[in-house]
Design brief:
158 residues; alpha+beta; Archaeosine Trna-guanine Transglycosylase, Chain: A, domain 4; 5 helices; 7 strands; globular
Length: 158
């Protein structure tokens, strides 16, 4: 499964459903399931205007925090008046829509137990069995069974 390392507090904001756009300087043609990995750096905490580290005491570093769908990627200048604006009408006013390329995230699921993992630059692969073994919810999904939310990650979807 593809994964993306995101600096804290932004990885945390993604998996709690507050950040539906991840900004990158590069596009990707990949669409589909995407694991959100929290990097180890704490440098961005000082820059984040939403508060200090105390506000996010439960943040985890150096681990996979959850899973989402990468629904689309749009250049910041191409949002207004195009298919992206019609498909995601909230995109123009979302506080995290900053570009250069906006990676639009949907169907976010926060894992109950983060999976310790070393991050990488760019998109990288994590074996499906690592995620399935660590999360009963995803193991059931892979087997075609009906997953029980109480047994797996905490879910959020918009």
């Amino acid at each position: 499964m593809k994964a993306l390392t995101v600096c804290q507090p932004y990885a945390h904001l993604i998996v709690i459903g507050e950040k539906r756009v991840e900004n990158r300087t590069w596009p990707t043609s990949y669409r589909g399931p995407l694991l959100i990995h929290a990097g180890k750096s704490r440098a961005w905490l000082d820059d984040y205007e939403g508060g200090d580290e105390e506000r996010y005491r439960d943040m985890v570093f150096g681990a996979i925090l959850g899973k989402c769908e990468l629904d689309g990627v749009c250049h910041i200048e191409n949002i207004k008046g195009c298919a992206a604006e019609r498909r995601w009408p909230w995109l123009l006013t979302h506080e995290h829509t900053e570009g250069l390329f906006c990676w639009i995230l949907g169907d976010v699921v926060r894992f109950e137990t983060p999976i310790p993992w070393k991050g990488q630059r760019g998109l990288f692969d994590i074996p499906d069995d690592v995620v399935a073994e660590a999360t009963p919810y995803w193991a059931a999904k892979r087997k075609g069974e009906t997953p029980r939310r109480s047994n797996g990650p905490v879910g959020w979807s918009k």
